[in-house]
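Box 3.1 A note on notation
Throughout this textbook, protein chains are presented in two layers. The first layer is the amino acid sequence; the second is a token string describing backbone geometry. Keep the layers aligned when reading.
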Amino acid sequence: MSGKSTSLVIAGCLMLSASFSAIAQSDLYYASNYRYRIATVVEGFVQPWSIAWLPDGEMLVTERPGRLRVVRSGHLLPDPVAGLPEVFYETTGQAGLFDVTPHPDFADNRLLYLSFAKDLGDRTTTVIVRGRFENDRLSNVEEIFSANAEGARHFGGRMVFDSDGYLFLALGDRQAPPTGDLEAHPAQHLDDHIGVTIRLNDDGSVPADNPFARQSGAMAENWTYGHRSPQGLAIHPETGDLWETEHGPQGGDELNILEPGKNYGWPVIGRGVNYGEGNPIHATIVREGMEQPEHFWVPSIAASGLMIYTGDKFPQWYGDIFAGGLNGQQIAHVMLDDDFRTVVREETLAYQLGRVRDIRQGPDGYIYFAIDDRQNATPTAIMRLEPAN
């Protein structure tokens, strides 16, 4: 990290500490190795989807109706960021503005990346744009990726940069029915962007070493396939592994390590059943050539945002995984072995506070999460976990 970037991070941490010193705190909770409290950081978000921080400590929050909000000095600015492109949003559906991700060199280039649902007239798809963020405005906006996919739901939209500067995007199966010949399901094919994760250069071009870049009939962007509804992506700092959470149907949410070129099985294998009647979907649970999850949830928690902890506020949780839960209304703390690849156990944190849509580590080392009211779009809060002495 450059000296300039380091100074900005330190300044941001100090600002966060000062800004949030008076936030409301909850009762005491108990977890492995720690007692903790839950504090309300800032309120007033309508269907928040993603949280990110800039090097100066400012917090960015996307709202699914199509707004990017700024929290500065602990206060939510009244006006959303200007200059965003038109976002396709459905009040009761899943379309809208999804993730916001600063470029790894944001301090120098001021580039922000946004993923969202876009109406193309004959279909709706998921796109990525990037633009320059200055003076609370996005300018020089360019679309760098548009998915070859269509459907009313399961848009995906979660993004992450790895340490080499490659950009990953998770894309859902667009709710293509898992019926009939399961191996003919779109998520089992590589000729589109349905049920896949993709890997791009930061300008949207395709890296030459992508696993399907030279395969005839395959989309060169594709990195993995066989996914249903991805919700979280995170790079583990110790191993470089790309971790992902995704929704199963009724049961069978998954936590996966995504490796290039591999098939994660939807809908041929899995542990979920059809909604309501509960009759089987999958051909089997295990099949050669299809990957097993590192961890799964039956019943589902409706896993959402994903985070790997590296801060100093909860040092004994270093390298562990934290996943939000929507219907589960919880944070799942998934503990890993010393190899940072093997799940050893799980505990539930921050339960029954509402639908946890995203979870992120702040530059101050606290664990932040966004609560989402999908049904009524009532304004909700960003909250955080704090250790209790």
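The first strand starts at residue 24 and ends at 31. The chain is about 5% helix and 40% strand.
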